Amino acid sequence: MDNSREPLDTPDAAGVPDPVGGLPTQRDAPAAEADGILAETPTTAGEVSHDPLLIYGREDDDPTGAWTKHNKTMERTGVRTMARRLPSLLRLSWSLAWEADRAGLIALVSVRVVSGLVEAVGLLAVAGALTGLLREGPTPDRVRAALPALALVVAAGVVRTGLSLVESLLRSRFGPRIDRVCVVRLLDLATRTSVMAFDDPRFVDDLEAAERGAAGGRQLVDNAVDVFTSAVRMVAAGGVLGVLHPLLLPLLVLSIVPDGWATARSARLAYTSWLSRIRQIRRQYMLRYRMTDRDCAAEIRSFGLSRFLLDEYTLLARDYEAEQLRVGRGQARYRLIGESVAGLALGAVYGTLVLLLNAGVMPLAAAGTAVLAIRNGRGALSTALSSLNDAYENFLYFGEYRSWTQEAARRIPESRSASAPVNPTVIRVDGATYTYPHTDTAALRGVTVELRRGQVVAFVGVNGSGKSTLAKILAGLYLPDAGTVRWDGVDLAGVEPDSVRDRVGLIPQSYTRWPMSARLNIAVGRVGRLAAEGPDSVIPAAAATGADEVVDKLPHGYDTSLARQYNSGHDLSGGQWQRIACARAVYRDAPFLIADEPSAALDARAEQALFDLIQRLGRDRIVLLITHRLASVRTADRIYVLDEGLVVDQGTHADLMSRPGIYHDLFTLQARQFVDTPDAPSPVPEPPAEPSRTH
Ligand SMILES: Nc1ncnc2c1ncn2[C@@H]1O[C@H](COP(=O)(O)OP(=O)(O)OP(=O)(O)O)[C@@H](O)[C@H]1O
């Protein structure tokens, strides 16, 4: 079973409850440590501080089915289903291994087959040796007679040991290769699918399952190899028994049926239990992830959430313990029945051997070999059965991976031969409509805007009015459901998406804090440039955006790691990071710059400098500015006012202030915040006329 999906153990004690029922404090933590790592968690039965299922809802409360996704699979999981799916399971693992390492696979199969043959030869040699040892005559003669066969037994043993070493080497080569093939495919698709796919919660949810399912590929191949190996060993043991006496083979099969039944039932019990608990397992996983995540650390402490979360986790973990006990009891019952019946059946096999010996039909030496062959055959069968069960389980996990990769491949934008204009003069959106997946309300409703080179255009409007969505459409990240986006008259729907993105420099609202050096954090704006122009090429972009002041204070300048979560990494303040994000977009040096709330975390001086820069860049580029700091859009050449997915007004600052409307209201409201007293004269003129609304 994949450990990453395994229910997690009870957490180590990280704090202890205070005696009067308060929350654990930092001061309490060492006391818990002193109790040792197995000290009881803060929660004990009867002192849970909240409703245990508060966080993710109750068992019967799963409207989206997100937590119970696998229950249907569980209903379909029967021995017959497993047998029916066996061929596709083996086919899949074969093709996976083939793709990862052809030569290794051929070598592994050959090694297994040869090893099986050697095992059969070894067993027959045992028969020869026993025949020599048990025959009539003086002991030295008998030993001499048995020597060649004994030598063969030893040689077979040595060869098998050598082959098993080769096999384990081959297996250790396989595992990482299969992991690589699966994970690289997942990452490739995840970074090439349309960004719109990530707005679909189902897609993102399935991606999480696929990430965990990717590891199932490696295990599936491992299980398939085990099944194959056991099959070869069973054939070897069966072949030897068939040679010794034809009656022994069906008897062996009979003797292993009860064990096989018990193994299959036990594994199925464990598997169905796992599936029925998948919801709790996901909850445990989420809780553990959040409780140890750096981003959540401050909030957990400042809201005093530790006890609350720990209670939830502990309850789930206890539930898991109880379930494991139930499964353990069930498995013990199956084993008891299976092994009792198998013992009787084995007694019958050995009884038959004795009868054959008594009747003089089988020599003693052959009977001795038969005992060994029976033992080997039974061992191989039990391995085959448990590997088959594991294989089926991993097949299901891997199924998550496969279905996601197929879906992701469908969502990769089609590549086209036509390119977007290299340095567009006019970008125009006509009647654009866009609705996010699984939402009822359109984010944009028939929007028309025009942006020109040499101008700074601003989008303003209240939260959720559609500004960022429209910016993403302009940047070619989203395709509108209706309407067109044209660059110099060329419809973006007909051009290669990468060519559009290549011409856009974006300062997104939420930028990425790459765990890399400061230099790379800027250079990711256009990675090819760093290689072509050298490490100092980032300096002008940093200087233009004030990122150079940030870098100057870092211990190793541009080479300082900004991966705070790792040793020696250096973290930046929000505003310092924002300067780096701006430098990244400037470094991209694209003809179309989109700045979406670029100054939210900047101090007043840095903000002013950034808007001056945006004005300068706007002289020979198309610049789109989205901001709630309305003082900064006063100088924009054109301002579009958005509201509920519509363009409700447009013009220059003076135009928009000359009439009542959203812009006038928002600007006035903000300007008032800078006036010292409520009685002070309004800093903005009252509008003279009724609003004229554009669409
Ligand atoms: N990924 C998404 N999935 C579903 N709905 C979304 C998504 N992103 C935005 N929306 C919705 O689309 C509408 C427009 O959002 P958008 O982000 O474009 O607004 P905005 O004007 O940029 O807001 P803000 O000023 O707060 O940044 C909102 O109603 C929002 O809830």
From TrEMBL:
Disordered: region residues: 1-43
Name this protein carries in UniProt: ABC transporter ATP-binding protein
Gene3D superfamilies, alphabetized: ABC transporter type 1, transmembrane domain, P-loop containing nucleotide triphosphate hydrolases
Family matches, as SUPFAM superfamilies: ABC transporter transmembrane region, P-loop containing nucleoside triphosphate hydrolases
Occurrences of domain ABC transporter (ranges): 427-669
Major place of residence: membrane
PANTHER family per the UniProt record, alphabetical: ATP-BINDING CASSETTE SUB-FAMILY B, HAEMOLYSIN SECRETION ATP-BINDING PROTEIN
Alphabetized InterPro entries for the sequence: AAA+_ATPase, ABC1_TM_dom, ABC1_TM_sf, ABC_transporter-like_ATP-bd, P-loop_NTPase, Type_1_exporter
